[in-house]
Amino acid sequence: MNARRVTFASKIGVIAAAAGSAVGLGNIWRFPSQTADGGGAIFILVYIGCILFFGIPLMVSEFVIGRSSRANTAGAFHKLSPGTPWKWVGRLGVLTGFIILGFYMVVCGWTLDYLMQSVTGNLQGIEDFSSNFTSLLCNPLRQILWMILFAFLTAFFILSGVKKGIEQSAKIMMPMLFLLLIILAVRAIMLDGASGGLTFLFKPNLDHVKPTVFLDAMGQAFFSLSIGMGCMITYGSYFDNRINFTRTAMQVATLDTLVAILAGIIIFPAAFALTANPATIVDELVAGGPGLLFITIPELFNQMHASSLWASLFFFLLALAAITSTISLMEVVTVYLHEEYNLSRRKSTLLVTAGVMILGVISSLSSSFFNILDISSAKFMLPIGGLFISLFVGWHLDQKLVYAELTNQGTIKIAIGFLKIYTFLLRFIVPPAIVAIFIYGLMA
Ligand code: PHE
User: Fold this and answer.
1) pTM of whole model > 0.90?
2) 3 pLDDT exceeds 90?
3) Which among 84, 324, 369, 419 counts the fewest CB atoms within 10 Å?
């Protein structure tokens, strides 16, 4: 099987694919609403701490597991530690990916709906953006149709193969999205009254903080970096032997965090500047929850010339950022079925697509179901997966293998230094910190 397994074609392709998985609705839709909920600047500080201390070492660990086994997420644990229960960590990851798809796909559908509204010019001149979004939420059929379309699009990319489908699209679209976000951020900051939003984002204020801030920020960090469920194990299994794991993980984490912060710099200044009641804006932001992106951003476009054009471009690129993430999620579940149950790639893809659609329909019909999938996967399943991955690489795996993978057989000298830091973090910091955050978050 090893010899036949495909690898990504180039270094830039590797970064594009991994960053394509990481950068998605998690950054632009989920991060702002979590930040609003978590009280702004303090949430962001904790979030960045989680990226540095958990995110990067865990992403590297997943790469190690993936490339050294060259197998799907569950197969990887089985291969590296045959006959032990570790394969359940991989199976948990596959299940987590499936559950994430079950609500994520619905939000992907929303982006298509908004893309349509932008292209047709319907988004222009709307008075009340909040009720415009609510009318979408109150129309399950509309949501379901867009969600199904998005699931089919993802399946199409999965079927068109690893290199062509994933790599090519990510390589072109990611930089475009980045550029557009910068333009929007500049526009948002220039609005009258935008400074309140920047203060909320960057000036820590203990009044807004909730006791669950650690659990929320940790969940968001795992979700945003696509770690804790084996997505980076599967992608790592496609890396060739020259890829430098530390550098790749740092690049992906930096890009991912920049995109999230940029999304914040667009949404918060715009929300503060455009609100009718500045006194209650923070409460409004918290109450806005998942709608924040779909309410504030169209409102910002309304302030710009050629608003339909900007909005169309934005929602198009957002849908692309989303699809590079849904591809990575679906890939995890698909190769698992393909390799573990001997189903053809085609059959596995169709099976996963059908399953995701069923979850997606239920999530469209019930916001509580949607929230259960969101919270259970991001706040619980991913960190639990991360906990076991850190234990596996830090304590269980043969450290000679970890050394060889991290340093590319001793050829990357600087990685030897990193190895010491990782081992320390993976053994003594990550596992107890995750457990402590759980206990604290659940008691709060
Ligand atoms: N990281 C993706 C995002 O931020 C979501 C995702 C989570 C993708 C887990 C793969 C695995 O949108």
Assistant:
1) yes
2) no
3) 84
